[in-house]
Specification:
The complex is a heterodimer of chains A (about 210) and B (about 180). Chain A is mainly alpha-helical and about 210 residues long. Chain A is about 60% helix and about 5% strand. The termini of chain A are far apart. Chain B starts with 10 loop residues before the first helix and ends with a helix. The model of chain B has no long low-confidence stretch (mean pLDDT about 85). In chain B, helix 3 runs antiparallel to helix 4 and helix 4 packs antiparallel against helix 5. Chain B contains seven helices and no strands. Chain B has a single domain, classed as Arp2/3 complex 21 kDa subunit ARPC3, CATH 1.10.1760. Classes of the chains: A mainly alpha (about 210), B mainly alpha (about 180). Chains A and B meet through helix 1, helix 3, helix 4, helix 5 and helix 6 of A and helix 1, helix 3, helix 4, helix 6 and helix 7 of B.
């Protein structure tokens, strides 16, 4: 059985407030979506890979390579532009290849920017936000106690864990939930990162069209 | 009892089930996938086992917590993955809830309900994949996708049935409800 991978350190979190980080990610996403050709999309997707890695998220390059390749393959039979080669009656065209490549890179890039910009400490507004706060506090407790799960007695160990966290026996006290997470303000280094990534991303999206 | 006559939403319990859903989603995310895009759908287990004792409103809240929460915890909230996840979860929930409410328990088992939910979820994902990401040619993988979906739907149904049968915690919770 494969061993679960250890979580990596989030290098962006200490410097960016979750809300600033969220809107920064949205702006980067907009640059990616509105950049026209495959080349700026490729450049922005590589920026996304770097940021996703810096955010401590697991990035499987094989998985994303497969995603881009499969989008190219499924798009390649559309007759668009100059014919490269003919496979029997089906023409493989330059336009279809680059269309598929641009599309595949966009979808991969969307995930990378999303991974980099969505923080677990992101505060949601309203009553749903309060409910999300409770859910996340319990989720953290479940994650903290996940080592008490035993593969050989899985159902029994899950049952014990659930009873510990949400007691159902008469007279049992509900343990207190963890306090809300402390959200770091955006540091000067964080603002510098925002400017140094958004500026070039905008330039790439506008100039390499 | 409130003037509207509707029972109040048990927010603590819904939040706890939402946390369970995220916990299972994370456990699944931590293990490498044998096939690209393959998902067991462990995070659907809390939705499945709560069919019997959550009201419609509570189920909808749990569904919302599951899709938004998974998007935040896994970091896919601002990507097409979130759209796929929302569409698939909503479709499977509508089918599972409808079957649970309309078909008598002796006619369909929880595994049958889970299978039907998995088929609905896969149908929506394939439609979105064709419409948004891959184009019409993606239809060729639909039979494989439905095959895998049938397996995962059966596995989740089997898991939910086993948990319902053996879990004392869930038994006490259902008795209280």
């Amino acid at each position: 059985m494969p061993r679960p991978r250890r979580p990596r350190r989030d290098r962006l979190g200490p410097n960016l407030h979750p809300t600033v980080r969220f809107f920064w990610g949205l702006a980067l996403l907009a640059c990616l979506v509105f950049s026209g050709d495959w080349l700026p999309r490729a450049v922005l997707t590589f920026l996304g890979v770097g940021l996703a890695l810096a955010s401590g998220k697991r990035v499987s390059l094989g998985y994303f390579g497969f995603l881009v390749a499969s989008v190219v393959v499924f798009n390649i039979f559309l007759p668009v532009g100059r014919v490269w080669v003919k496979l029997g009656p089906v023409p493989i065209t330059e336009g279809a290849f680059f269309l598929g490549l641009g599309k595949g890179l966009t979808f991969a890039g969307l995930v990378f920017f999303s991974l980099a910009s969505i923080s677990r400490d992101l505060k949601l507004p309203g009553r749903f936000g309060a409910l999300w706060g409770k859910t996340f506090a319990w989720y953290e407790q479940l994650m903290d106690q996940r080592h008490s799960l035993k593969p050989r007695a899985l159902l029994l160990s899950i049952d014990h864990l659930l009873e510990r966290l949400y007691p159902t026996r008469a007279g049992a006290a509900t343990p207190g939930l963890a306090e809300a997470p402390v959200r770091n303000p955006t540091t000067p280094a964080g603002w510098a990162l925002v400017v140094l990534t958004l500026g070039p991303a905008l330039a790439v999206a506008l100039l390499l069209r | 009892m409130r003037p509207s006559g509707k029972p109040p939403v048990r927010t603590d319990l819904v939040a706890f089930f939402g946390a369970l859903s995220l916990f299972f989603a994370t456990l699944e995310y931590l293990f490498p996938k044998p096939i690209p895009f393959f998902r067991l759908g462990l995070s659907n287990l809390p939705l499945l086992v709560s069919l019997g004792f959550f009201s419609f409103r509570e189920q909808m809240l749990l569904l919302l917590l599951k899709v938004v929460g998974t998007g935040i915890v896994n970091g896919t909230l601002a990507s097409h993955v979130f759209l796929f996840s929302t569409g698939a979860t909503l479709a499977s929930f509508i089918v599972m809830y409808g079957l649970h409410r309309l078909v008598p328990p002796g006619v369909i088992s929880l595994t049958g309900i889970s299978l039907a939910g998995a088929v609905a979820s896969n149908a929506v994902q394939i439609a979105l994949a064709i419409g948004i990401v891959y184009g019409p040619a993606a239809g060729v993988v639909a039979p494989w996708y439905f095959g895998l979906g049938t397996f995962t739907g059966w596995a989740m149904g089997w898991g939910a049935t086993a948990f319902l049968k053996h879990s004392k915690w869930l038994g006490r919770l259902r008795a209280q409800a």
